[in-house]
Amino acid sequence: MQDGDKILTLLIAAKRTGASDLLLAAGAPPSIYVNTRMDILAKEPLGASELNDMIAAFLNAKQRERLNQYRDLDFSIGRADLGRCRINIHYQRRSLAVAVRFINSDIPELEELNLPPHLAELAELPRGLVLITGPTGSGKSTTLAALLQRINRRRRAHVITLEDPIEFAFKNDKSIIEQREIGDDSPSFADALRHVVRQKPDVILVGEMRDLETISAALTAAETGHLVLASLHTNTAAQTIERVVDVFDSRRQQQIRVQLGATLRAIACQALFPNERDGGMVPAVELMTITPAIARAIRDNNTHLIDGMIETGGQHNMQTLDAAIAALVREGVISRDSAMAKAAEPERLERLMGRTAGELEVVGATASSLRETKRRRGSETQPSARSTSQRKPWE
């Protein structure tokens, strides 16, 4: 067997197990993740020289050159016997290592992903910034792909995606979709964004807002009348806003707050959990939609108020991550242990998980009464509501 074929053999074997990820590192056996749990694919550990030879044979000359120059390489491949997968090759302790993410070749519908129903409304927005956030492996790329597919099937629009690498391959339906891969079609996200507004897009997808230049260009694109969909590695809406602002130096931060307050339309923060009832994975989602009060809190640097506004923003289809997680626990879909491992505020989650639906209604009524009292005294508040949705296993 040729060295390059050895990696393909491992990829196919991992895919057949239903793995979401494959890891190859010198001194360790090939390992996989199935439903977020690590397992061993093959017993024998890989030697450094063996792995280096396998990778060198797997890559083409241009990829080897980029790997030697940047010490990291991202790309994607697609095969009939494998589907699509995203591959990262990097150095560690002077030897190479590989991380592979398997991608569902079928672009899912939003309804299949058990996301909040009102998330679908974001695909109808004519302009503004929508952020899908969460840790690595939380399904951000899948959600973005489902949003784009909804646009593709329902709107006549010119869509340009900026990805590193391209994951889901779209076919034009009502929309025209151009997919640009960073490294091959443009040198960087920032460079691509600087020129994208001249290409007459209606919708721009930014695979990841990684640095100051990319974030600044994405904000400008949203400000100039485009719908910009992007992802970030943050866990809550308030944290997302702080992360975006903190990228800039202190002299520009107030300007960025003003831009965010004017352009931001929604933030959806995802976490994935093993589905104890039906198998597979299920998401919990914090959803923040922009309101005048939230926009003002962003502009006035009062992001510490946003969690409370989300918690009491049910009439605007908002929910906190902990509330979404608690609902899944009460429905018997996820375990308390896995819920606590990803809680934004563990003490609050404990209280939410321990409450019955009746108790939650009493709490909501009490909160409404308190807010009405404050309103009468001249304080600005938001009414409270609570909504739930049917959930299906993550596919």
Features:
395 residues, alpha/beta, Rossmann fold, seven-stranded mixed beta sheet, six-stranded antiparallel beta sheet, 14 helices, 22% strand
Structure description:
This protein is of the alpha/beta class and 395 residues long. It folds into two domains: 3-103, Beta-Lactamase (2-Layer Sandwich); 110-376, Rossmann fold. Helices cover 39% and strands 22% of the residues. The protein contains 14 helices and 13 strands. It has helices at residues 3-16, 48-58, 61-70, 140-154, 189-196, 212-223, 237-246, 250-263, 292-299, 306-311, 321-330, 336-341, 346-354, 357-376, and strands spanning 21-25, 31-34, 37-40, 72-79, 83-92, 95-103, 128-133, 158-163, 176-181, 203-206, 227-232, 264-274, 281-289. The strands form two sheets. A seven-stranded mixed sheet has the order 9-8-10-11-7-12-13, with helices on both faces. A hairpin with a 3-residue loop joins strand 4 (72-79) and strand 5 (83-92). Helix 5 (189-196) runs parallel beside helix 6, helix 7 crosses helix 8 (250-263) and helix 11 packs parallel to helix 13 (346-354). The protein is globular, with a radius of gyration of 22 Å. Residues 356-374 and 379-395 have low confidence and may be disordered.
Produce the secondary structure layout.
Layout: H1 3-16, E1 21-25, E2 31-34, E3 37-40, H2 48-58, H3 61-70, E4 72-79, E5 83-92, E6 95-103, E7 128-133, H4 140-154, E8 158-163, E9 176-181, H5 189-196, E10 203-206, H6 212-223, E11 227-232, H7 237-246, H8 250-263, E12 264-274, E13 281-289, H9 292-299, H10 306-311, H11 321-330, H12 336-341, H13 346-354, H14 357-376
Parallel strand pairs: 7-11, 7-12, 8-9, 8-10, 10-11
Antiparallel strand pairs: 1-2, 1-6, 2-3, 4-5, 5-6, 12-13
Helix pairs in contact: 1-2, 5-6, 6-8, 7-8, 8-9, 11-13
